Structure formats: structure tokens, C-alpha cells
Amino acid sequence: MTSHRDPISSTSRTRLRRKPDRGRFDRASIERILDEGFVCHVGVVDVQTPRVIPTCYGRAADLLYLHGSTGSTLLRALAAGTPLCVTVTLVDGLVLARTQRTHSVNYRSVVIYGQARLVSDPNEKARGLAAIVEHVVPGRAADVRPPNRRELAETHVLAIGIDEASAKVRSGPPLDGLEDLELPVWAGELPLRTVADEPVPDPSTPAVLRAGPPVYVRDYRRPGG
User: What pLDDT does residue 16 have?
Assistant: First the structure.
């Protein structure tokens, strides 16, 4: 495992060929995006039949943890060492320009390449699953029952090192050409953010618990949000 202070590897796969000025290759930028997001898309690389799935993840220092059923074809392939790609995207706003062609989206994204390690140690599996729950809802993992032996046996937990990665960021107003700036059209940014609505209790929740959800549910917000 690498040190938390080790630099991110710059490779031909992480080099940005289009809009390279939007690239970020420092670990702090990459981890801020990973920490604010919680859904990634995971796909296999260099295979005849590529597959991509959305899934939740958790970050613990220099590792991402993923989980899924031991019956998952994709997870079995990744556990066997098939090269993978993980992407995380945060949408920060819509960029409304004066021409159709120059409309855009403000975003922050991370792409990670590598190979997954199948977590076999039961203690690390439990920590990995707790890390995913805690990443999605900070404070939740300690409140709920951890997985039992049967559930651990039915679940694949994969660890991916954040070693070969890059971030890409688009921010700011539309980039209209000088010849279009005088068009009589409103142009600008429409910021977007993830906001939690009122919690809805499960009908099976005892009445004494329904009226008062935990603080981390009542005041839920993403890091940086």
C-alpha cells in the first residue's frame, strides 16, 4: 500500500488530450472530488466485451472500496485481476451560452486506472463495507448492525489503490466567440447542487424513532456541498 503522501502517477492513460488546462493531478484535488461524490462507474479495460456498472464506493486513505455480490460477473472479473477504470463525476452547474454549440456543463471528475485486490481478510472486509456506508452517510456505520459471517461470505469487497489517476474540472461562464457576445440572449451559469429533502421513515420504524431521525440524517449534506 502506498503512503497517503505519495504523488499520483502520471501515465499515458491519465494524460488529458482535450482541454488539458482543466486537468488536476495533485492528490488533494482528486481526493476532494472523491470525498464529495459517492457513486462511481466501474468498468473493465482491454477486454472484448466491456462492461460498466454504477455503484457506491468508500475511500479510506489511498484506497477505494467497492462491494457487490459474489455472483456478479463484473466483480468476479475484477477480483481476478482484470484491469479496471473507475470514474466519479460531480455536476456543479449548467453553462448557458449564446449559441447551441457553446453550451456546456460545469463539472469535476476523477478517473482512476488500476487493478483491484480482492479483500479476503474478514476484518478488512468488514472495515471496507463500513467505509462505504460511512462515506455515503457519515455517522451511520456505528449505528447499524455490521455484516455477519454469512453476509461477508456472500459479498465481494474489492480494494483499488488511488495511484494512477487524474481529475478534470470545468468552471466559469460560457466561452462564446467575440462575434456572438452582442446576441440578445441571456447567458450565464445555472448552479446545481445535491440537497437532501425531508427524511421519510420506514413504516416499520417504531413510533418513538419516527419523529426524531439522527442528526446525521436530519442535517445531511455532502462534503463541500
Answer: 64
- Residue 12 CB coordination number (10 Å): 6
Instruction: Classify strands 63-69 and 23-24 as parallel, antiparallel or unpaired.
Output: unpaired
Residues 3-42: pLDDT tens digits?
455 667 677 666 666 667 776 767 888 888 889 888 888 8
Map out the domains of the chain as residue ranges.
Answer: 20-195
Task: Decide: 112 and 57 in contact? Cβ < 8 Å.
Answer: no
CA nearest 160: which of 77, 84, 55? 84
142-187: pLDDT as tens digits: 999 999 999 999 999 999 999 999 999 999 999 999 999 999 999 9
In what helix (H) or strand (E) does residue 132 lie, and over which residues does it extend? helix 122-136
Instruction: Return the number of other C-beta atoms located less than 10 Å from residue 39's C-beta.
Output: 12
**Considering the entire predicted model, what is its pTM?**
0.83
CATH level 2 (architecture), domain 20-195: Roll (2.30)
With cell 453550451, the residue in question is: 103
